[in-house]
Amino acid sequence: MQTIGLIGGMSWESSAVYYRDLNLGVQQRLGGLSSPKLVLSTVDFAEVTDLEDEERWQQIGELLAEAARGVDRAGADFLLLCTTTFHKVADQVAAEVGIPLIHLADVVARACVEQGVTTVGFIGTKVAMEDSFFTDRLATHGVTALVPDQQHHEWLNSAIYEELVHGHVLPRTRRRVVEIIEELWDAGAGGVLLGCTELELLITQADVELPVFPCTTLHVEAALDRALA
Fold it and tell me: How many distinct structural domains can be found in the chain?
């Protein structure tokens, strides 16, 4: 079994999901008392979001790269960033370590293509929806991403940062997100990407008719495939 390296803390709710699902996944695949070999380094979410607000992405990249180097030195065989938004600096982080980084967009795009879905709705933080770093990476695999109308961006961002990262899952928020997903369906989306780990606390396949691609779940499965190959 290979050792999985994780950079977390963006938010701790996200890190907890990765840790839980990696453990459950190994238990399901191997049975008994089996558990994954993990190296986890977490950053201060307040520090990272302050830098994000100031658009100091180079410094964010340096901070995450330092965490990644620690994970590398600790014996990880490959690396995951437990976040969608901060994949904006994934290439910068990957360049600083000697182990492969499993890029979330590559994993999600492959899942879409395997299901024959080449146009998807993408919901996440304001940065992830408005900056093209993630959707451009999807496009290299032949997947076109549609983001919600601009009027929804601030509200979605607030729902993530003010509710979901604190573990607050509210029915009224779920209803509005479902409405936004239905708008993306009307715009031509053949599926929807939950482009933020915390959104998976809110939305499941049972909530919408479109195929749901839960980014974190897919990321975890890709990590387990590699670790247990």
Answer: 2
